[in-house]
Design brief:
The protein has a single domain, classed as Folate-binding superfamily (Folate-binding fold), CATH 3.30.2270. The chain contains two helices and six strands, in the order βββαβββα. The strands form two sheets. Strands 3-4-5-6 form a four-stranded antiparallel β-sheet, with helices on one face. Strands 1-2 form a two-stranded antiparallel sheet. The structure holds zinc ion. Zinc ion (ZN) binds next to loops.
Length: about 100
């Protein structure tokens, strides 16, 4: 079973979390009305094999959004940080 490390609550079963998509995909600007940009952001995605950065929400815990590194080939979880703590700088700094 996949166990995810929540930075607030500690290690928990994945059933406490909700998958939120690819964390490396740029989100359209808030208030942007370009329907195609939002369509592409919400519905179009790649499904590559290997290590990915994903958004997960701890819905049955602290309700925080996390950025989790996960190997999609083996379902192995890696590092996780709070999404509100600027993902790029912290993931690279802790590597
Ligand atoms: Zn939590």
């Amino acid at each position: 079973m996949l166990r995810i490390e929540c930075p607030v609550c500690g290690q928990r079963d994945y059933t406490e979390f909700r998958y939120g998509g690819d964390a490396s995909k740029p989100r359209p600007a808030h208030g942007m009305a370009d329907r195609k940009a939002w369509h592409d952001y919400v519905f179009l995605f790649d499904n590559p094999k290997g290590w990915r950065r994903e958004l997960w929400q701890h819905v049955l815990g602290c309700r925080e959004w996390l950025i989790l590194e996960r190997d999609t080939a083996t379902n192995t979880p890696g590092k996780s940080i709070l999404a509100r703590d600027s993902a790029d700088a912290q993931m690279e700094a802790s590597s």
